[in-house]
Design goal:
Blueprint: H1 3-9, E1 11-13, E2 27-29, H2 30-43, H3 69-86, E3 90-99, E4 106-115, E5 121-129
Length: about 140
């Protein structure tokens, strides 16, 4: 990784917080930092951060919804809007939500993005767990 790329992407605390090899707080850099940032955005519900209630992703509004094409579309749109708003270092190229065939309570959300500085294409799969309605299997 070049110095300019490190300056642009930066570094941040790993989450969950971990101790590094030298005994200090472990920091994420480069693509690891971008993935951690995107995960943080998507895993935060609106209002969860008291001092920044607008931060997060609207995907959590779908937590109790049935998994159908409409819900999957809402999830995709919520993720795309949140990442576009809160992570200026990347450009979202596509978001695709698909139910997991082996775990009906899980929806896998594939986020494809491009790092603006380097034009490097990357992807991240975020597992989103729904709470099935009574009577659903």
């Amino acid at each position: 990784m070049t110095t300019g790329e490190t300056d642009f992407i930066g570094r941040g605390w790993s989450f969950p917080v971990r101790i590094g090899g030298a005994g200090g707080i472990r920091l994420n850099t480069g693509s690891e930092e971008l993935n951690a940032s995107i995960r943080m955005i998507v895993s935060t519900a609106f209002g969860e951060r008291v001092m920044r209630p607008e931060f997060g992703c609207g995907i959590w509004d779908q937590l109790f919804e049935p998994v159908n094409p409409g819900t999957l579309g809402e999830m995709e749109q919520a993720v795309e809007e949140a990442v576009a708003r809160w992570e200026p270092r990347v450009e979202v190229t596509s978001v695709e939500a698909e139910p997991d065939a082996e775990a009906p309570e899980r929806v896998n959300i594939a986020i494809d993005y491009k790092v603006r500085l380097t034009n490097d294409h990357r992807n991240l799969v975020y597992p989103f767990y729904i709470i099935p309605q009574e009577g659903e299997e």
